[in-house]
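Dear support,

I submitted the protein below through the web form. The confirmation email said the job was done, but the results page showed an empty box. After a refresh the structure appeared. I'm attaching both so you can tell me whether what I see now is the final result or a partial one.
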Amino acid sequence: MRDGKIIIARLWPTFGGNIPSVIPVICGINPDKYETIGIYLTKTSDAPNLLEQNGKKVFFVTQKSRLPIIPFSFLRLAEILEEQGVDILHCHHHKAAFYGTIAGKIAKVPAILSHVHGLGRTRNINRKLQNYFLLPRIDKILAVGGAVKNDILKTNPSVEPEKVMNIGNSIDYEYYSNTNFDRHAVREKYNIPSDAFVFAAAGRLAETKGQKYLIKTFSEIKKQTPNIRLLFAGTGRLKSELEKQTMELNCKNSIYFLDRVNNMPEFYSMIDAFVLPSLAEGLPRTLIEAMAAGVLCIASDVGGIPEILDNGRLGFLVQAENSDELADMMQKAINLPLQKKEAIITDAKEYIKTNYSHNVMIKRIENIYDTLIKEKTGCNKN
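What the results page shows now:
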C-alpha cells in the first residue's frame, strides 16, 4: 500500500490504442481507497493514452512492438511491480497473465488476477501446458460471463471451481439508454425509408458471427414482406463475400453495409430489431448495448447469449445456423403487437441496468479487490 491506498496494476499485452469501454470502469474505482496504474508489455500505437489523460500512471515493459528476450521481460516487469508497490496485479488476456504471473511471483505481489474475455482460450496443447503451470499460482480467474466460466473449468480440469468467478461485462448504460434522436432524421441520413421495418446487426464481419445466415434469411422474408431493410455496422475480412452474397440474392438495395459506426446510440435509434446470429459467443457487448437502447433482440442460443436474454424472457432465442428458425423469429418480430414489444423492451432495459452497467461492475471489482486484500494481508480496509 502507498499513502494508505491499495495499489492496483492493470496489465495488458500491448497498447494498440484505447478500449473506451474499459476506461470508465478503471477510472470509476474509488480513488480514495485504491490507486490504479496501467502497465503494457509492448506498444503498437502512438495514440494518447486515456488512462494517462485521466491521471493514472502508465508503464511499458518496452516501448517497442516486440518484447526483449524472455528473462529480461520478466525482470523488467517485476521491477515495475516492485517499484510501484503493487498489491493486486489484474492481468487481461492470456499473454499478460503468463508474464504477469511469473513477474508477480518474482516481485512478491500479494494477489494476482487473470481476466478472461472470451471462449476457447485454452485452444491448444501449448496453452494447456501453460495454464497447468500458471492457474494454480493465480488467486482468482475472472470470467466474462457464465459460458466463459464453464469453458475455463471444462478445458482446465485441474482448476479449483471456487477460484473462477463470473464477473460479467458492462456498458455505459446511461449513454445507450438515454437517447433523444429524431428517428426520421436519422433514417433520412442513411437513406432508409421511414416506414420500413429495419433489422440490424453490429460487430466484426466474420464467419463466427453468422452474418451469411442472416442475409439468406432476410432474402427469404423479403419475398413476403418487401418493405424491410437490413443494416450491418462493422467491418471485417468477410465483407466482400457478404456483399457478393447480397447481390446474388437480389438484395443489394435492401441491405446496407455501414462499416464502422461512431455513434452507436444513434444507430440503435433507427432500427426495429437487433439480430445476432452468431455461431459462438462469450458475452457480446453489442447485444447488451442494443437492449439498453430499447431495441427488440433476436440472437443465437450460444455462449453467454441466453444469460443476457434471461433464457428468452427478454428477447428471442434461435438455434445457430438455422435459417428457418431465424426466419420465424424475424417474422414474429415484424408482427409482434406493440404492447407486447414494449413490455419486453422495458424489462430488458431494467435487466441491463441492474446487471450490466458500469457502476455495477465497479462495485463487483471493488468487492473482489477488498476480499483478496483481506485474505492476503489480513487488512480489512473500508
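Response: this is the final, complete result; the empty box was a page-load delay. The chain has a mean pLDDT of 94.
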